[in-house]
Amino acid sequence: MPHLLAADRCWPLHDLAATRRLEARALAQRPDLMQDAGLAVAKLALALWPGSGPVWVACGPGNNGGDGRVAARLLREHGVPVVLTPDEPVPAERPALVVDALLGIGLNRAPSTALAATMAAVQACGAPILAVDLPSGLRADTGQPAGAAAVRADHTLTLLTLKPGLFTGEGRAHAGQIWFDDLGVAADEPASADLLGPLELRERRATAHKGSHGQVLVVGGAPGMQGAARLAARAALACGAGRVYLDLLGAPASEPADPQRPELMRGRLGTLREAVGVVGCGAGEAIAAALPELLARLPRLVLDADALNAIAADPALQALLRARAAGTTLLTPHPLEAARLLGRDTAAVQADRLAAAAEMAARLACTVVLKGSGSVVATPGQRPAVNPSGGPALATAGSGDVLAGWLGGLWAQAATTGAHRVACAGVFAHGRAGKASGVLRAADLVERLATQA
Ligand SMILES: NC(=O)C1=CN([C@@H]2O[C@H](COP(=O)(O)OP(=O)(O)OC[C@H]3O[C@@H](n4cnc5c(N)ncnc54)[C@H](O)[C@@H]3O)[C@@H](O)[C@H]2O)[C@@H](O)CC1
């Protein structure tokens, strides 16, 4: 039975190769699997159908189209008027619902001219779109369109497995509401990635005091960019770190850490050898000179923004990064910073976000959070994770600084936890707090994080 994907737990994601293996094994036992797939599609279409008007079932040449054909037959048996293309002409009037069964996981090239024209007609007809398995034209592994465009659906009913491409890159913008039906087939294939759910790392014992909750040292905030470092520090504080210090680069000692947040203190590496470093927010070029010592001395590090740019530009810093102990360093690049780290352009990073994150993690021997829609967490030797929480309200100045600070705050309270797990927990919480209509200012995001925690 199709069900809306629940956001309160983790789910396994299976890439194309794993899905194909699963499908082949399932078909050997249940050759009529397509009947069940079509039934699942028909049930959801019936639930979405407004009660009058035709359903346009747009079928393609393969088994995705086969699912559509089964669904069309079942809907007709149920008394629902159906127009099935390409057997019948495209409806002249606006249908009540479109079922996009043109292309699923068999997509292997840019859509042909004929299919692209049908996809455009599906998109232009103005009816809600239910995509079968995947929005047509979207790549299952990367969430990128194979050609100029992929269908933008209102709902996607994905079958057998959850595909990574539904959750990262352009996938989330194309899939709409995601429904899932495993068709009763056990997923006896190792997951290719994890879809993140909530994960709590902090424990506040009755006997705890501020010394139990660790220290964070935020290094950044060069003149004119102090807000970035202050946002990171506020986030670490809101997360519950015991003591949060700010090393504002180039600021006189008389400058308060944050006039609006008296809980925050000025501090420097010299005395804070056990703190979690959150380094780079608004740091400017001055951070390059500070990085060797920070990389050498701080036991756990979150590196963001200008720290990443400095590392991208300097092979010696990259070598210092690689020399750190496993599980102690976390990088949070956005796609442009990732492109600099990898020495390629942003489009190449976005073309396969999971691969780009894995490559960065392997090259630099650390955990990488590749930010953007469907943030990817990658660590050498661990299964990658994709984050489904968050939305466009987070596309605002300072939300990345808040993430870096929140990660630092979490890590301060979970000292024995590896970078990968910290990243998974923090990225999900940050996205969940950032789910809002309109735009969210970063300082308000900190408050939302504090209250959901
Ligand atoms: N095999 C089965 O019994 C089941 C299949 N399922 C469905 O079957 C789908 C996979 O079926 P297929 O492997 O047949 O793949 P698709 O139906 O996704 O597409 C394959 C067909 O499309 C053509 N094609 C691929 N890319 C094209 C392009 N860019 N332009 C034009 N034509 C293109 C191929 O030449 C082939 O004819 C799944 O997505 C799912 O919807 C599921 O229902 C589970 C059960």
UniProtKB/TrEMBL annotation:
EC number: 4.2.1.136, 5.1.99.6
Annotated catalysed reactions: (6S)-NADPHX + ADP = AMP + phosphate + NADPH + H(+); (6R)-NADPHX = (6S)-NADPHX; (6S)-NADHX + ADP = AMP + phosphate + NADH + H(+); (6R)-NADHX = (6S)-NADHX
Any GO BP: nicotinamide nucleotide metabolic process
Pfam families, sorted: Carb_kinase, YjeF_N
Nucleotide-binding listed as a keyword: yes
Cofactor (UniProt): K(+); Mg(2+)
UniProtKB keywords: ATP-binding, Isomerase, Lyase, Metal-binding, Multifunctional enzyme, NAD, NADP, Nucleotide-binding, Potassium
Record SUPFAM superfamilies: Ribokinase-like (SSF53613), YjeF N-terminal domain-like (SSF64153)
Binding site residues for K(+): 64, 100, 136
Subunit structure: Homotetramer.
The protein's name in its UniProt record: Bifunctional NAD(P)H-hydrate repair enzyme
